[in-house]
Design brief:
Layout lengths: L1 E4 L5 E3 L2 E3 L20 E3 L5 H4 L2 H8 L2 E5 H9 L3 E5 L4 E4 L2 E7 L10 E7 L5 E4 L9 H6 L4 E5 L8 H11 L3 E5 L11 H7 L12 E3 L1
Parallel strand pairs: 3-4, 4-5, 5-6, 10-11, 11-12
Antiparallel strand pairs: 1-2, 1-13, 2-3, 7-8, 8-9, 9-10
The structure holds nickel (II) ion and manganese (II) ion (MN).
Length: 212
């Protein structure tokens, strides 16, 4: 499964893009205009997650998947949307997209995490969005999480210590850290996190593509 990380919480997994905050991320020199995708999932409406969603969606004629209230707002901007809510699942293209809880705020609707399964690959991806640690991650892990993409920056989300506890709850095969070192207040040492983590950690540089 081909994964590209554009810094912060932005990932392109095959043809599905998540939280494309590209323009304005001084830590990542990627260009939003170069990104091709069919689906964009937005975990919540904070600017460091919505990012370039509208521009990329319009240019690619991509469908934006978001929590119901946020989807309604994006639809008014002229974007194709699929609204959903916590606990729900939709199928688009090769993807099954389940929206799961996240402990975080949002201006519209609420913040969410995503469980993503692609019919071409036998790997389930959990993108936690912005969240603190919560015990129900056990339930997400029970569904069989292969790749867990977890925030480690602290202050607005889990820090490295709580992300290690999240790994215990989720029992993934691989962890990818996100949401750190983008701006002041969310400094984290991903290498140290990797040393302490009981499962392999894939650290991506900005714009880096890996087969995972
Ligand atoms: Ni946020
Ligand atoms: Mn954030």
């Amino acid at each position: 499964m081909k994964i590209t990380h554009f810094g912060h919480s932005a990932f392109l997994i095959e043809d599905l893009l998540i939280d494309p905050f590209i323009t304005g991320n001084t830590q990542c020199k990627a260009n939003a205009e170069d990104i091709a995708c069919k689906i964009i999932c937005v975990t919540h409406d904070h600017p460091d997650h919505i990012g370039d969603t509208i521009d990329i969606a319009k240019r690619n004629d991509a469908t934006v998947v978001a929590v119901h209230e946020l989807a309604l707002g994006l639809q008014k901007e002229g974007v194709k949307t699929e609204g959903m809510n916590i606990g729900g699942m939709i199928e688009i293209g090769d993807w099954k997209i389940k929206m799961v809880k996240a402990e975080h705020s949002a201006d519209v609707g609420r913040a969410a995490g995503l469980v993503l399964a692609n019919s071409q690959y036998d790997k389930t991806v959990y993108h936690a969005g912005d969240t603190g640690l919560f015990g129900d991650m056990v339930l997400i892990g029970e569904e069989g999480t292969h790749i867990a993409i977890l925030p480690i920056g602290g202050r607005y989300t889990m820090d490295e210590t709580d992300a290690l506890r999240a790994v215990d709850l989720l029992q993934p095969e691989i962890v990818i850290p996100m949401h750190y070192n983008t701006f002041p207040g969310i400094e984290a040492d991903a290498e140290e996190f990797a040393r302490q983590c009981v499962v392999p950690v894939e650290i991506f540089h900005c714009g880096e593509e890996k087969e995972v």
